[in-house]
Structures are given as structure tokens and as C-alpha cells.
Design a protein that fits this description.
The protein is mainly alpha-helical. The protein is about 70% helix and about 0% strand. Helix 3 runs parallel beside helix 7.
Amino acid sequence: MQNKITGALLGMAIGEALENNVLHGIADTEELKIGEETLMALRVGEALLESQTEESFVISFANKLKEWHSSIDPQTTVFTPSSQTSFAACWKMKEGVSLEDSGIPTATDSGSAMRAVPIGLYCTQPEQVVNYAISASGITHSHELCLCGSVAAAYITHLALTGVSSGVWANELVKINYCKEFKDIIKLAAENTGIDKPVKYVMSDKCLGSGQLVHETVAFALYSCMRYTRYDFAVMLAASSHSPGAATLTGAWMGAKLGQEGIPEAWISKLINKDKLLTMADNIIKTKHQAISQSSLAVVQEKQIVQKAV
């Protein structure tokens, strides 16, 4: 389990770094840097570890967002669509708008989807994964597609972590997703995986779309994971799509599926400041082990009570 959790976090960071290189026309670098989306995902992870309930998680994450907001100089910062959305939502929070209403209802970027990966690593039950993902997205990205995208990112991470074959990820995702537009594109991604059609056709407006909207990004990432069994092939395919977040999600999902050893060591060695990711993986696994131990103890105690009563 720890190998796969570590793989997901490393895979996400490497996927984002490679995606950024492609977007900026950089062929190769001696170092791979942890990007803003992975750092935002780490804030989600920290909030999960600090909290006992969904409500306290949302409050903790909102506070971390406001701290991030205070550290940003809007005059010198180059915002991505996702960071711009989060920044605008933080302004609303600081102005006293409630967390229920702070989300930007018009934003359809993939920001809240990418940062939902730790939710899939941390939560043990599917219903918990879904509820936490919706809550984490809603405070910044409240559009229906963004809520669904957050659920998709967290839920596929959960499926990969628990050993569910990537061949059925789409089917499982359709079962729990309530938005027809999202369901349709997920089905389309799955249908085109086994068809001999050019990748450029599938990842275009003629099929899955431009890749600029969150449901398109998720579809691109899902298609990449279902088309290739190797981490490097899947991530580079997603990165080549120029869909913001596609390689980030693909890296996380393939990392959770294959574990750390499935990621090329050459890329892992290039990733700087990876200790942040390794520490987060350690803390998540410790928390999961504690939860399992407490659950097992509760079951034993309940059996003892029943036996005494008999």
C-alpha cells in the first residue's frame, strides 16, 4: 500500500513537471520541479491529516488556501486558469463569504480535480471519497463539471490504489457520476481506447474535445491510462495533448496503479524536493493503519460485549 501511495504522489509531481516542460517547449531538463498543482494537492493532504471530520477538513483546507492567497503577489504572479479560480475564491472567503458560497460557479478548469488525488489515497470508503471530493472542490470550483471532475480524480485514485483494473475505471466512474455531460465523455474515452483510431483524432475537438475543460482533461487522462500499461508512455501521451492537468492526473493514477517501481528511476532522481511527497505518503499510510487498527479493535470489543450478553 505504501509503495502505491508513494507512487501516486511521485507520479503526480513528475507528470505535472513533464507537462509543464512540454507546454513551455522544453525538451529535457536536469531537474524536475514540483509544480503548483502538486503543492496544492499537498495542502489537501495536510488538511486531511489534521482533521477528524469532513467539516473540519473543509475548514482546515480553506485556511490553507487563505494562507496561500496571502503569500501571492498578484502583480508579479503568472496565474494558470486553476490558480486564478482559487485566488478569486479566496478573495470571497476573506471578504466574509461563507464556504458554501465562495466557489466560482463559472470556472470549468481542472484545478480542483488535480488537487483531489490525496483524497483518493486517504479515504477508505467510496462514499467518503465522493463526499470529501465534492466538499474540497466546492469552496473554489463550484461548477457541476468541476465537482464531478474532483470526484473523478479522487475516485480513480482510490480504484487504482485498491487494485481495480484500469480497464474498468470508466465503468466504475460512470456508476457514481451524476452529470450526463461528464458521463458521456468518459464513455467516449473508454470506447476509443480499443479502437484503431489515431491519437491525434481522439484527443481533438472531433472526439474528446480541446482538453481545456475539466471533463475533457479527465477524459484525456483516462484515455492515456487505458491505452498504455507503462507509466512513461501514458504520461507522455497525456502531456502531448496540451490539456492542462492531463499528465498530472495520468501520473497520479498510473503511479497509484503501478507503485513507485513503475516510474522510471531516471525521472524520480531528477525530481527535487521530493521529501515533501515521501513524508506525505508516510503520514497517510500511518493514519490509514491507525484507522484500521481502531476499526479492528472496535469489532473485537463489540463481539466481546455480545458474548457477555449471551
